[in-house]
Design goal:
Radius of gyration: 39 Å
Number of strands: 11
Number of helices: 10
Number of domains: 3
Strand content: 15-25%
Helix content: 40-55%
């Protein structure tokens, strides 16, 4: 999310006090409010996965079975006729030999030597019947749709159930891949032998194909009224797979690579859809990684900042499991930070809470207020940072923070908070 890059970038701007201000990466989970919550909020949802191509798969299988049955019927009919065909060939040959034997020797010599004709009878060849091979159809992969829905489709903040539930359905259109091809590329390589440098052209090869798996989704209420539906355009765009380049030409059998990309594409698209649905109507449990700061000093003059750091660390981590206790720990840290800011003197480099420490505390507060959805206090900090002499990079990051809080405000307003 926005703030991760922001805080990391701000951390780079704080390198001037790296000897005193320390930062540790921390990951916590918070509930992101939906942009378009369903009103009144439902308690339950049901998730389904359908494959639109299963109908076509079944048609191909049905035709395959018909073709196999026809091939078997043709074989059995030809086998039944085979003895009669053999007898007919024998009878015909016998009659022709009888006629041949009735000819005079002179006639046979005339036909062969003068007329250049060889009319000696030849027995007709009767081929042994065989079963016609019917190749199985190429089908799109079938999945355990119930398992897919259970694994990838969830609406955070709601429970699975059928009572007046939202119906959340994803429709798979089927994986597609273009035929694999071997692509060559000539690279110039330099070698050094006995202190002499030489270069030569070397050909590298890699396997390449494109692939996609279009999908669509629909969320409706218990009355089948549509709440949210889309067919993401990015799923219709082909992506390119390239194998690792090597000096030896790879096999054209790309079945393993294609299967791997099929599985990867299926999972990524389902996860992307689930994020879209939760961002809009769910209460998405979202992970946030950021840099939490404390001040380390030899004379322990910043123990209060360290205490706040420890309380905040515990608070952030507890938000997902014990929200009330997590908020209490964050409030404890916030109180310490705000108390320390009363000593802030950004013009005095020797002050206990100098400019560098002040910025570090402000960053910590912005993260805490975001987790607690306290936009009013955050606005005051952003206004203060806007008045400070910051680097251009930090100014851009403050703007990013402002956008993040604007998004939070819109989500809170949509949810009546």
């Amino acid at each position: 999310m926005k703030k991760t890059t922001l805080i990391l970038a701000l951390a780079l701007g704080l390198n001037v006090f790296a000897q005193s201000v320390k930062g540790e990466q921390l990951t916590y989970t918070y509930v992101k409010l939906p942009t378009n919550p369903v009103q009144p909020k439902p308690a339950f949802y049901q998730a389904f996965v359908n494959a639109a191509y299963e109908v076509e798969n079944q048609k191909l299988l049905d035709q395959f079975e018909k073709d196999k049955a026809q091939a078997e019927a043709d074989y059995q009919r030809e086998m039944a006729e085979y003895p009669n065909r053999l007898k007919a060939a024998d009878d015909k040959y016998a009659k022709e030999m009888e006629a041949w034997n009735a000819k005079s020797t002179a006639s046979k010599i005339l036909e062969k030597q003068v007329l250049n004709e060889n009319n000696h009878p030849v027995k007709d060849y009767v081929a042994q019947p065989y079963r016609r091979t019917v190749s199985p159809p190429v089908l799109k992969t079938s999945y355990d749709n119930n398992s897919l829905a259970s694994t990838y489709l969830t609406i955070d903040g709601l429970e699975k159930g059928s009572n007046n539930a939202l119906n959340y359905t994803v429709t798979l259109q089927g994986f597609e891949a273009t035929p694999a091809r071997v692509v060559s590329e000539v690279k110039k390589e330099t070698t050094i032998a006995n202190g002499v440098s030489s270069s030569k052209d070397v050909t590298y090869y890699h396997l390449e194909f494109t692939y996609r798996h279009p999908m669509s989704f629909r969320v409706s209420n218990a009355a089948n009224q549509e709440i949210y539906a889309a067919a993401p355009a990015e799923f219709t765009e082909f992506k390119t797979y390239k194998s690792t380049a090597s000096k030896t030409q790879p096999s054209m059998d790309a079945s393993a690579a294609i299967k791997a990309m099929e599985d990867k594409c299926l999972q990524e698209n389902l996860k992307a859809i689930n994020h879209m649905v939760n961002d809009r109507i769910g209460f998405e449990r979202t992970e946030e990684t950021f840099e939490l700061y404390y001040v380390k000093s030899k004379n322990e003059s910043h123990n209060d900042i360290l205490d706040a750091y420890n309380a905040a660390t515990l608070g952030f981590k507890m938000l997902a499991t014990n929200e009330a206790q997590g908020k209490a720990e964050l409030d404890k840290a916030i109180a310490i930070w705000k108390k320390a800011l009363e000593e802030s003197d950004i013009t005095n480099k020797k002050a206990r809470i100098d400019k560098d420490v002040t910025i570090a505390i402000y960053v910590n507060l912005l993260e805490a207020y975001f987790a607690l959805r306290n936009t009013n206090e955050a606005d005051l900090i952003l206004q203060t940072l806007g008045r400070m002499d910051l680097s251009n990079r930090d100014k851009k990051q403050v703007e990013a923070y402002q956008k993040a809080y604007l998004d939070l405000k819109l989500r809170m307003a949509a949810n009546g908070l």
